[in-house]
Request: fold
Amino acid sequence: MSRSSKRRIKKIGLPAESLVYTGDKKEKNPINLTLINYDATHYEERLLQQVDACLLYKQKPTITWINVDGVHDLNLIEKLGEGFAIHRLVTEDLVSIVQRPKCEDYGDYLFIVLKMLTYDARQNKIIPEQISLILGQKFLLSFQEDIQGDVFHLIRDHLRTGKGKVRHRGTDYLAYCLLDALVDNYFIILEKIGDSIDTLEEVLMRQPGQDVMEQLYQLKRELLFLHKAVWPLREVISFLLRRESSLIQDSTMPYLRDVYDHVVQAIDSIEINRDILATMLDLYLFSVSYRTNEIMKVLTIIATIFMPLTFLAGVYGMNFEHMPELSWQYGYLLIWIIMITLGVFMLYFFRKKKWI
Reply:
């Protein structure tokens, strides 16, 4: 049973809108609330301890970005959802970390679910983390499954220093920046997987073995996992590009189309790498089959050479009384000469036929 299936079992039999955290237990880890409030001339960043402090910024004309690291504290998530009038079903999805990437329109806000991926080089494994965004008119709430960091540091730097356009645009542009950062991170993972594939291909050509087969299977599985995270993202961007929500301004559309192109490129790269792995798997099976055939050919040649020799040895190994050659003085020497001659002739014949 997969890890996601085990997590879903926690919610079986419960009514809709039940808040159940489906991730790993992290009661000892505190939830971090980071608030960034800004406009073109103003910037404020605070690390908050209480949800009530976040609600004070709800009615301000400036843009507020609240980032929540960790979603295992159900009371805090529920209180934050109630404070921003978030639907209970959305709050349920925030703490259920097995969601498929999606985008849902609730009128006053958009609910977006994404996957942030990191690559563990030591284990050759992709580590997933669910990122949820709630995009409102003047606020953006982001929820991260873990508290170990993210890929949004450049966006925070641009907000602090005022570089780029993010301080001069709305929350939809901020959401675009987060989307773009996640998609760019996919290319970093694809590059690392591509390097692993190149290295494995060299090993495969030199010395294929069981460990190569295991690495091939692991890489193929990671690419499948990456495909499941990236493929639905195309639907998310397409939903935003259809302009069905007034929260997405026309000025943000070109940037979203650029992200859509990057998502398509990422999907193409995944498909290409999957085809390469499939070819490498076929090459591995061919190499194993070829080596087996070579071994069988050598054993067959040895058995064929020894077949007439075994016949001669068997004939003169019989204990019949009247066998004239057994009492002949040069019989033993003659048999050796015949056997060696047969062996040499058969080797010459096999080489002439290019069987060896």
